[in-house]
Amino acid sequence: MSTTEILELIKKEPSRTIKSDFVENLKRDLEKVKFVDLKFTDMPGLWQHFTVPITELSENSISNGFGFDGSSIRGFKEIYESDMLLVPDLKTGFTDPFSDSTVSIIGSVKDPETGEFFTRDPRYIAMKAESYLKETGIADVAYMGPELEFFIFDSIRYDQKENFGYYYIDSAEGSWNTGTEANGSPNLGYKPRYKEGYFPVAPTDTLQNIRNEIVETMTKSGIGVECHHHEVATAGQCEIDMGYASLLRMADQVMMYKYIIKNIARKHEKTATFMPKPLFNDNGSGMHVHQSLWKSGKNLFYDKDGYALISDTAKYYIGGLLEHAPALCALIAPTTNSYKRLVPGFEAPVNLVYSKRNRSAAVRIPVYSRSDKAKRIEFRTPDPSCNVYLAFSAMLMAGLDGMKRKINPGEPLDKDIYHLTEEEAKAIKSVPASLSESLNALENDHKFLLAGNVFTQDMIDTWIEYKRTKEVDPVRLRPHPWEYHLYFDI
Hints:
Helix 8 packs antiparallel against helix 10 (388-405). A hairpin with a 6-residue loop joins strand 10 and strand 11. Mean pLDDT is 92; it is low at 14-20. By secondary structure, this protein is α+β, with helices and mostly antiparallel strands. The protein has helices at residues 3-12, 20-30, 59-64, 122-136, 208-220, 247-267, 312-323, 325-332, 338-341, 388-405, 422-426, 435-444, 447-450, 457-477, 481-487, and strands spanning 35-41, 47-53, 66-69, 83-88, 94-95, 102-110, 141-153, 155-161, 164-170, 225-230, 237-242, 245-246, 271-273, 287-295, 298-299, 351-356, 361-365, 377-379. The radius of gyration is 23 Å and the shape is globular. The protein contains 15 helices and 18 strands.
């Protein structure tokens, strides 16, 4: 296809509003494009890809999709039913910053025999969630604004066999390196102390220029960025905040966000991780998700006379999140490592209450602005190890269930939760303490996800089985290094 034909097809697609400068950049870059990299997400939440020459892009291939082996993708198909199709969404196209002469396009998965989209495709679930929202008549659009935290380390080594197991992280910023003798160069100090990494300037913050490069690359790829900074933990914890977007578009952007961060870190001979709790005894990485629902250009979460300027509609949405939080955790904090983060004392939002300004509550209502356009709720329990298509969709479905059933979240808690009396603390529910508990909760509470056929029973059953057999059991079966300290001399 010619550049003009591709651009015309992009303009016809209704799934994303494109800024004119991005279209112009794409038009310029398409003149040099030789390859199209087709990206999609497996069930746990990692991007997969394959590449075709630009000459293979045609109206037929765009409509019908490109074939691939679904049996080799985690959570997809068995060997006897392996043929799948990837249908590209042209409006997700961006010039790939890490592959020469290449445009990347995100796609959704179809079954070639039925011609229907694949019910276990995470992106298709997000598409259905947006459609279901409109079908309810409650709202036209759900906006999501996630804040993903991550670490940039200098190196990472890990291994486990029958007779040993270890991990070893290093970072020039690590507070543990204050006394280290560097090979061939002096130790210059200026390392963020544990839990004191929030907002230091250079030379303590050594990653400013790398984050600048990441933001510049994101902007060129069509992602709006609001700010970036060093985060609380030592050893290179960072955060880059995107502007809010509709659910599906934001899920696509999060995948791009991770891709860009990991590859630019590698370019600088560093490594980035979105693992929720890579370091012992310092803050982990969360993914606080700002959310609001809009209808006919009006923010349904705003009420000038409400608590923290939120409406009853927003309270019912919060009620849904809090009631279904134990089940949601299986999708929004879906790794065994997630529950190393979800413990009191590290700003972790384990308490199932809501509050304005209080960061120890699971749901916070930001009060930076009194504008009706800025009013939203912030769910702080999720972490960036999640599959964002599933996590965003599940949170929306929980909130909608709260609105439909008018679930009252109770009174807000504007006290310091960590300094409550024993009696007050006992009355507050908490998130599950392990992935196993969360999966049990999802098994017992998932009807709200099945509404509108957004999630299917098959998808939920597959998710639970995968997590139990591929993650919970393998971790449960292996000795932990600290067990040797506790028990070796018994």
